[in-house]
Structures are given as C-alpha cells and as structure tokens.
Amino acid sequence: MMLQGTVSEGTIVGYNKGGVLVDIGELKGFMPYTKIAPERLRAGHKGDLSYLMGKKVKARIVQVDKDSARKELVLSERQAQLTEAVLRFQVGQVVRAQVLRLEDYGALLSIYDGSGKPSGVQGLLHKSELSWDLVMTVDDIVKAGQEVDVKVVSVDVSRCRVSLSLKQMQRDPLQTTLDSIQWGETTLALPEVKQIIQVLEWTPGIKRVDIGRQAEEAHTVSQDVELYLTKQSREGGFALVARVGRVLQELLVDTGLSKDDMKKALTRVLSRVGRS
Fold first, then answer.
1. What is the C-alpha radius of gyration for the chain, rounded to an integer number of angstroms?
2. Hey, CA dihedral for 162, 164, 169, 172, is it positive or negative?
3. Distances (CA, A) of 164 to 4, 137, 148, 150, 266
4. What is the C-alpha separation between 197 and 252, in angstroms, rounded?
5. Any idea of the CA torsion for 166, 169, 172, 177, to the nearest 10 degrees?
6. Residue (of 213, 212, 209, 266) closest to 237 by Cα position
7. Is residue 236 a contact partner of residue 254, using CB atoms and an 8 Å limit?
8. Edge-to-edge strands of the sheet including 237-244?
C-alpha cells in the first residue's frame, strides 16, 4: 500500500477542470492543477490539459483517502520535486542562501544550489542559530535580501524542511576560552542546572552528581541550555560544564559509564530538559 509522503511514478490518464488523473500501479490518484509543476503547464492552455495525456509524472502522495473503496490518492508533482531537492542537502554542508523575510523567531532563507541558482528549497535560520552573542532582534544580524553562507544543521525530508545556522560558521567561543575562564565558587545554582542534575541522577550508571565551580563568560554564547563533556581527567567519572546564558556551571559526575556512553547520556538529558 502506498504511504503518505512517498514519491512514486505514474501515468496521466485523464483530466478535468481541477487537475489530472494519474494511475500509479493499480491505484488511482488525483493531482490538483495547483500541484502540477509550472514548467509542465503550457502558456495559454486555458484549462485544456489534454496535451498531458499519457505523460509520465513523478509525484508525492500528500493524502490517502482511506475511506474510499478505491483508495484514492491526492498527488503533488511540485512536492516531489521539492523532496528531491531537499535530499541533495546534508547535515554539516555549507550553502549559500538569500534572506527572504524576517520573523520574530528567525529568518526564512532561499537556499542556492551548486551553480549559485535558487534550488527551490527554503530553510529556517532560527534566532538561536544567528550568533554566539546575545541577539535582541533578528534584523540586528541579517537583513532581507542579504546573501549569507550558512551551515545545514538538520534535514527533515518528510516535511521538506531544512534548518540552518549562521553562528556555526564560527567556532564556539566557549571551546576556545574554556581553559582561560576565571572560575570561582558557586554562589547560586540556577533552576536549569538543578534540573540537569536531577535528570543526570536518574540516568542508569550515574552514581552521583556534585556542583563544582561557577563562572560568567564574556559572550552570551547560547540562548539555549547546553551541556559539555570537558577534557579534564577525573578518577571515577567526568567533569561537565553546563551553560545557561552567560553562566557556566561545572558539574562533577561519578559514574562507571564510558566516554561514548556518557556523551549519549548528555544528549538524552538535554532533550528532556528542553521539553520541560
């Protein structure tokens, strides 16, 4: 059975004022006029789509009518093309893009292909990925119409979404300054830090978590809670650094977990803290 979101090839076998009828194997599909690729439509056709009869078409299944005895499908050629375009991008890839518009939560960008032309794919540059410094408003960093080099941080093929980062085009300042930070005594453990400790202590294999030193970084290097495994050697465990705004908090963890298992545990911890 065809699943919603998959891309399949079919043959155009009919048409009406609303679009074209497509056979995909033994299944019937309907592609609305607005979902047909613009380059396939003839100028001045005035709704006469007869010239498309018998043409092969690659389309994405955007809806499955489960209540229909014939299991009819709603198709989109445009989304099939967009899906193929999104698949060309990989996490970690650096791309050129143009800022289309600004929102309170970030900027929407048009991503260029390898030839420097618009790929048809749009990406979100979230406010938290604009800069390692504190960002008050999006237009402090980028402007509509501006071209920028950005890094791909996630690709969601099912939703045809690409997430981008401008700040990751530069190295995290904390990674370069951690050794030179002026540490002091912890005066007050932030609520986010207490939550991290609580989730860490629930993690199998972790015996104990103690609060270490505290510091304030010159940059507001993240607008989200972050957690790092430091290179500091420690018998029977690891030293972590939690970052909340400008505050850096050292955490001392007693555990029998390996370094790789500890890194996986930190990823799970952050996902739980982020949902709360």
1. 25
2. negative
3. 26, 17, 11, 6, 23
4. 10
5. -130
6. 209
7. yes
8. 206-216, 247-255, 237-244, 226-234
One-letter amino acid for residue 13 of the chain:
V
Token pair for 227: 């957690």
Amino acid identity of 193?
A: V
**pLDDT tens, residue order, the chain (276 aa):** 557 778 889 999 998 888 899 998 888 899 998 899 888 877 556 667 888 899 999 999 888 876 655 567 889 999 998 988 898 999 999 999 999 999 999 999 999 998 888 888 999 999 989 987 778 899 999 999 999 999 999 998 878 889 999 998 987 666 655 666 778 888 788 899 999 999 999 999 999 999 999 988 766 555 678 888 887 778 889 999 998 888 889 999 999 999 889 988 998 898 888 554
